[in-house]
Every structure is written in C-alpha cells, then in structure tokens.
Amino acid sequence: MNETTKQIAESFECNYTVFEKGTSPELVERAYKAAFEKGKTDGFYPAIISLDEYAVEWLEEVVGKDYEREEIIAGCKDNGKDILKERLEEYTEDFEEKDWEEFIGEETEGEVLHGFSGYISFDDGQLEADTLLLEIPVKNPWEIIGYLPMGGWNECPMPEEMIAICKYWYEKYKAVPAVFTHDVMEFYAPSGLNNMNSMEAAKEHYAFCTDRIDQGTRTYTVSELAAGLAESDVWYFWWD
Fold first, then answer.
1. CB-based contacts of 188: which residues, under 8 Å, 6+ apart?
2. Can you give the three-state secondary structure of 97-165, one letter per residue?
3. H/E segment holding residue 176
4. Against a cut of 0.70, is the pTM above it?
5. Is 209 within 8 Å of 156 (Cβ atoms)?
6. Which of 166, 115, 116 has its CA nearest to residue 140?
7. pLDDT the model gives residue 63
8. Which pLDDT does position 240 carry in this prediction?
9. What range defines the domain where residue 163 resides?
10. d(CA 172, CA 41)
11. Which of 187, 192, 200 is nearest to 226 (CA)?
12. To which H or E segment does residue 81 belong?
C-alpha cells in the first residue's frame, strides 16, 4: 500500500484491511459481510471507505483538525425523524397538488439493489481507488459517523444531522451506514425495510438525498424508488 493510504488507515486507530486499486469489488463486499457478522461478537461495526483523491483530501483535513470523535457521538440527538420531515417539507413546499401527485406516481417496478457500488470504477468494474475496510470500535452503528463525519456540502446533511438520521434509520429499519466515498454513501439493510412502509421510506430517502429520485430513477417518482426499496438490502445515495 502507498504511504498516504497507510497513514489514513492508521489514523482511525482500529483494525483495518486494505484493498488496493484495481482489486475485484466482490472481495470487498464479501469481506464486509464477514466482518459484519464477526463484529456482533467482537464489539465493532465495519465500514468501507474509498480513498479517491477527494476523499483523501477530506480525511486529511478531518484528521488534521484533531476532531473529537466522542464529542460527535455524545452529541447525537433523537431528532432524525424530525430532520427528515423538515427537509422533505423544504424540498416540496412549492408543489401544487398536481405536482405532488406526479411526484408520488403510480410505478410498481423499481431498481433493486443487492450489492455495493460506490467504490467501483465505471471504466473497468474494479476498485476505483485504494479502499479500506475498517473495524470501528463502536457500540452502535450510527456512531460510525464519529469516525467518518460525512456531510455539510451541497445538499448533504451536516454531520450532526447525519448521525441523528443514521440512529433513526437503524432503530426503524436496522439499516447501518456501510460505504463512504467523497460523494456517495451506502447503507446495508439486511432486514430490508423491516416490515415498514416502502412509500414512507422512499420519501425519507428523498429528504436525505434528493438526487436519489431526481437523478436515480427513470420516472422521477417516489413510487418507483419505493418499489425497488421493497426488495433491496442496499441503499444508495449520491450527492451531485
């Protein structure tokens, strides 16, 4: 591994595995799921971070600030549901009734996701950059954000909001933050929607990341996203 990758990996102060650029992404996902099971008894949650040049810049800045992980974790509030509700209202406040009906739609088919993709190169289908699988020593999966305080740019929620949303989604759906790049976040949801309503889940996903519908569906509708979520165990978000 190169020196930058090594320095970033060691800065997390936890066990890690490095998968070098060009490696088959299936190896990373297989290792993640094995670590996910192992962590249940060993007291950690795994997380994947793709170290492209923008992510390296972000992580070097975060580490350089000597941020307080425990402070971020301790500051987590039980307001994730309220944050999503406020964001949805903000993004749809100008909708007329017709606009809302079109936005909801009547689709019965949507893309089903069963594999992570945020770290895969569009050019050759292999790892786009050196990729770390971290064994983060936290009791609760939302506390991963204390180690990877993503957010605060474009329409991405601030880290303080991100950790609250992750807590809410784990308690409701058993979904955990799993994959991070400089502009993508993926959740692993082994229980699917945990018997929750798919339309409500899709609205929450839109509130979290409008591009999930605006650029991630064919019909730009909540119903299309909901149809896919009903059968998915991976949630994908990209902030353009």
1. 32, 36, 116, 175, 176, 178, 233, 234
2. HHHHHHHHCCCCCCCCCCCCCCCECCCCCCECCCEEEEEECCCCHHHHHHHCCCCCCCCCCCHHHHHHH
3. strand 176-180
4. yes
5. yes
6. 166
7. 63
8. 84
9. 3-238
10. 22
11. 200
12. helix 80-92
Q: How many domains, the chain?
A: 1
Cross-strand partners of 153: none
- Closest C-alpha to 19, from 130, 95, 117, 116: 130
Rounded to whole angstroms, the Cα distance separating 59 from 51 reads: 9
Say what the pLDDT of residue 66 is. Answer: 61
Which residue numbers in the chain have pLDDT < 50?
none
Q: Are β-strands 184-188 and 176-180 bridged in parallel, bridged antiparallel, or unpaired?
A: antiparallel
Q: What is the pLDDT of residues 127-169, one digit of tens each?
A: 999 999 999 999 999 999 999 988 888 899 999 999 999 999 9
CA–CA separation, 117 and 25 (whole Å)? 8
For Cα atoms 238, 83, 229, give the angle at the middle one, nearest 5 degrees: 45
DSSP characters over 35-64 = HHHHHHHHT-EEEEEE--HHHHHHHHHHHH
Q: Is 94 helix (H, G, I), strand (E, B) or coil?
A: coil
What's the 3-state SS for 177-234? EEEECCCEEEEECCCCCCCCCHHHHHHHHHHHCCHHHHCCCCCCCHHHHHHHHCCCCE
Question: What's the confidence (pLDDT) of residue 65?
Answer: 61
Cβ count near 34 (within 10 Å): 12
